[in-house]
């Protein structure tokens, strides 16, 4: 689909060398001021063509050697000439004196690159060929430098980093839509672009911190509307869980394989009861595959009959197993939430009855996420109020390896939780004007989310109660005029 994005104006221009040595290592091409003006004002929608004070141009060469670059004007370039540096000339297979056709290009604005795989190499042979490049720093640098620039598969780009000139080749570009990542021919680099580095085998460059770069890049900018999901506070925790559990899942296997890092298959949310662990895990499961995740409860899974519990655990994974068998790599991700996991995964040998029943269950769980025939398509989210009771074996790498502590909400978190739980009554005018949620948030130090919800319920019960005439229960209720007042909330606090 080469037509997409191209303007209709093309000019024939003569290739010349970069006008000065100092411009040899930039990614701009240069033309004369009058040609520059022509490019800038031509095209049906010039505003789209201009990026800063430059024009984005594809250079089209016979045989479709394409180069998308930005063009600037320079006084040393004559009309009808286009000055390309050595890398640009090599890439488009043109030499000084060649005639090429230049077309204005409307950068695709509808998508940005979600992932960019860059192969790094030096521009020239270097004495020191054992350099370590930090992927985190590099990604930030590239994002800043090439922000809003069009990149095309196969394109070679020069850049200077800490005094050395490198060249990168764009090897792969993907853009994510709601469900999966699609390979694209070109896109624009944005702050959300997730950049993966590869080192050209001959370069001797070693890339470090690839994993950190991956996790710091993606989802960094995604703001989930937690309030809308009914979750108060916990913004950072939610983002952390989402990033650790799902960032890698969005990318296709050939990408994640190159990273050499396996998906996180289990995480543990721990902290005081009623702080929103279940709530959050459930919403995350839903966000991910649009349906309710499976939630089981430790004590429920524990069956009185020996052997029955292990069957319960096996059943939990049955759907995921079937899906994996049927669809392999294409299988959905199955989120399994295990509430009160400490009930079945207490330190082995510490079981009350000493029968070793629990050991069998723990082993069963571990086999499913970590064993020889482990499932690749599950995410087990364990939850506990008592992390100290858990069997250490469960927390090893490859198992419930990401630990996220969910604490009691701070004042701002409490305010959000109170807003969430009073939102409906407010919409329906049942909340009296004197209710000051900010003040209630300030007065509820050390309350958990569940306790705050309890306060709201209690306040509502006081309001209901006021409408009931105890002397004459047959008297019709005045439904319209129920108001939950600040006083009701204060009474609720006392309960
Ligand atoms: P946990 O799993 O941490 O014990 P839950 O998620 O089961 O706690 O919380 C119980 C209820 O308390 C939730 O269903 C929700 O109504 C309320 N709640 C707890 N934490 C929050 C929160 N952070 N935001 C909104 N509601 C909360």
Automatic annotation (TrEMBL):
Name of the protein: Vesicle-fusing ATPase
Keywords noted in UniProt? ATP-binding, Cytoplasm, ER-Golgi transport, Hydrolase, Magnesium, Metal-binding, Nucleotide-binding, Protein transport, Transport
Record has DNA damage as a keyword: no
Identify the cofactor(s): Mg(2+)
Q: Which GO terms describe its biological process?
A: protein transport; vesicle-mediated transport
Q: Where is the AAA+ ATPase domain?
A: 263-410
Cofactor comment? Binds 1 Mg(2+) ion per subunit.
Shown portion of the complete protein runs from: 4 to 498 of 758
Record-stated family: Belongs to the AAA ATPase family.
Q: Which GO terms describe its molecular function?
A: ATP binding; hydrolase activity; metal ion binding
What does the entry list under GO cellular component? Answer: cytoplasm
């Amino acid at each position: 689909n080469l037509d997409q994005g191209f303007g209709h104006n093309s000019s024939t221009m003569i290739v010349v060398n970069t006008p000065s040595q100092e411009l040899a290592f930039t990614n701009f091409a240069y033309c004369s001021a009058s040609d520059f003006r022509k490019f800038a004002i031509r095209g049906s929608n010039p505003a789209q063509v201009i990026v800063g004070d430059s024009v984005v141009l594809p250079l089209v060469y016979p045989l479709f050697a394409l180069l998308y670059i930005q063009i600037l004007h320079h006084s040393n370039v004559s009309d009808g000439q286009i000055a390309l540096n050595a890398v640009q000339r090599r890439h488009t297979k043109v030499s000084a004196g060649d005639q090429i056709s230049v077309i204005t290009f409307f950068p695709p604005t509808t998508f940005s690159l979600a992932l960019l795989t860059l192969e790094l190499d030096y521009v020239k042979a270097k004495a020191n060929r054992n350099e370590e490049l930090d992927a985190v720093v590099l990604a930030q640098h590239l994002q800043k430098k090439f922000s809003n620039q069009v990149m095309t598969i196969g394109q070679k780009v020069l850049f200077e980093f800490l005094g050395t000139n490198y060249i990168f080749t764009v090897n792969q570009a993907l853009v994510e839509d709601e469900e999966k990542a699609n390979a694209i021919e070109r896109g624009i680099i944005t702050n959300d672009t997730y950049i993966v580095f590869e080192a050209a085998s001959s370069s001797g460059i070693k890339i470090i911190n690839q994993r950190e770069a991956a996790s710091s890049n993606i989802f960094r900018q995604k703001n989930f509307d937690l309030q809308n999901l009914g979750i108060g506070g916990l913004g950072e925790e939610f983002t952390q869980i989402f990033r650790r559990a799902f960032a890698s899942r969005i990318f296709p296997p050939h990408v994640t394989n190159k990273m050499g890092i396996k998906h996180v298959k289990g995480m543990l949310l721990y902290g005081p009861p009623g702080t929103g662990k279940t709530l959050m895990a459930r919403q995350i499961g839903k966000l991910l595959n649009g349906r309710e995740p499976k939630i089981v409860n430790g004590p429920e899974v524990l069956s009185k009959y020996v052997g029955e519990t292990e069957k319960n655990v096996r059943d939990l994974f049955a759907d995921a197993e079937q899906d994996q068998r049927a669809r392999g790599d294409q299988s959905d991700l199955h989120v399994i939430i295990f509430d009160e996991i400490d009930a079945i995964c207490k330190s082995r040998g510490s079981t009350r009855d000493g029968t070793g029943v629990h050991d069998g269950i723990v082993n069963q769980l571990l086999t499913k996420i970590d064993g020889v025939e482990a499932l690749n398509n599950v995410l087990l989210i364990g939850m506990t109020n008592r992390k100290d009771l858990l069997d250490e074996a469960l927390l090893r790498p490859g198992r419930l390896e990401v630990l996220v502590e969910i604490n009691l909400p701070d004042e701002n978190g409490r305010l959000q939780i109170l807003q969430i739980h009073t939102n409906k009554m407010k919409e329906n005018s049942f909340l009296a004007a004197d209710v000051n949620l900010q003040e209630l948030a300030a007065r509820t130090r050390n309350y958990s989310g569940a306790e705050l919800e309890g306060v709201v319920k209690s306040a509502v019960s006081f309001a209901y109660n006021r409408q009931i005439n105890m002397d004459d229960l047959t008297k019709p209720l005045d439904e319209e005029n129920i108001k939950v007042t600040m006083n009701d909330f204060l009474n609720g606090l006392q309960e």
